[in-house]
Amino acid sequence: MTSTTKCPIARAPANAPPVPAHVPPELVLDTRFANGHIPNDLADPYAPGDVLRDPAFPRIHFYPWPASGNQHGAWVVTRYEDIRRVYEDNDLFSSEGVAQFQVLAGETWPSIPLGIDPPDHGKYRKFLNPWFTPIAMKAREPRIRAIIGEMIDQFAQRGEIDIAYDFGRVFPVRVFLDLMGFPFAMFEQFLAWEWDILHEPEIATKAAAVRGILGYLREFIGEKQAAPDATLGSYIANGTIDGEPLTPDEVLGMTWFLWLGGLDTVASTVSQMFRRLAMAPALQARIRDNPAIIPTAVEEFLRVQPLVNSGRKAKRDFTWYGVEIKAGDWVTVFNSSGNFDAAQFACPHAFDPERQANRHFTLAGGVHLCLGAHLARRELRVLLREWFVRIPQPFRIKPGTDTTVTPGLLSIRNLPIVWDVN
Ligand code: HEM
Q1: Which residue range is the domain that position 142 belongs to?
Q2: What percent of the chain clears pLDDT 90, i.e. is strictly above it?
Q3: Higher pLDDT, 202 or 85
Q4: Structural domain includes residue 83
Q5: How many angstroms separate the first and last alpha carbons of the chain?
Q6: Is a pLDDT exceeding 70 seen at residue 4?
Q7: CATH classification at residue 196
Q8: Residue whose CA is closest, atom 39 of ligand 1?
Q9: What are the helix (H) ranges across 339-397?
Q10: What are phi and psi of 334, to 5 degrees?
């Protein structure tokens, strides 16, 4: 077992939730700062996570607070190769129950595809994949470009925008609503439900929001079954696999998880991307002067902004780095650490917009690699291209702005930026 005598992180405080009896107390550590909840004001908000790869830091530790969207503690791995093992070893790790917020409303059906293990997982991905391939995204690009361009044009001459609240929060949701066939009128209500589910600490508040969205989704599915159209929501509501119609639970499980996974992940990415750009005029100039680097720059933005730490459940007892892990224990991967592992990435804290072979975990790994990965990439690429064409002037954070960021899905609520207009 890794020595914990010189562990650079404090043990969890006495008021932390209790841990299972087989967890050694010296491995129960307070690593909340690396789990997307604690804000900071650093130029690189993920830098504090470096301590998790210190040679004296245990290779695996226990995090007693709820992790990965679940209501319980978990073992945590922080090194690139250990994270990859959790994502890729489907014989040992299951994703059943990950981010399964619907249990709060007494629902027992799984989230699809995330809550399904191989081999069944494959049939759902095969069903959904045609909507998310690079070719499908290319076909959708004109619509994405129109939404983004139209929005930027509305404020380009103003010289100022709250890039997080008034833009980053809005445009990816508009793209997503379009894709699914959800009405734009649900915009604010969707975001309010999602906020409650993901970020409100009170279980009763989360449960009320889950009930709200599920009630809405059941109606939406009924409407799409009564009057099918060319949207993804309709494709799922009327879907068949191997000639058999999807069951009501399958339809709901898929519609629900797309809603949860697709709504505001890109929004958080945009706000952190613009914070970094606004603090680095030379980086702005480099991308503006050479748009050919936008695809690699987007990948680098994704690497340095790992929003989500995922989790898996151990399928059987096993020993890892001398630690006994029991069947049913949860193992969380800190993508927030793995993406900066020097064993995988040269100069991990240098932002290199032309970095090659950038295999980060922001969009996860293994079979559950984010279904929306190509859509997210496409949206970010179109955004950078349209931005620098329509607003070539350098932009900066509005003086006096609070630049605190939560290095996770919460990210930044408001970020006013300014530029000179002629
Ligand atoms: C930058 C934006 C995004 C980030 C950072 C992100 C992140 C992730 C991560 C980390 C996972 C894996 C979770 C796990 O294995 O436990 C995931 C899975 C998933 N994401 Fe995304 N996501 C993004 C955008 C999207 C979008 C736009 C959509 C849909 C329109 C989407 C839909 C999904 C779905 C359906 C899964 C489950 C895939 C499966 O289980 O096979 N994501 N995403």
Answers
A1: 25-419
A2: 86
A3: 85
A4: yes
A5: 64
A6: no
A7: 1.10.630.10
A8: 368
A9: 373-390
A10: -85, 90
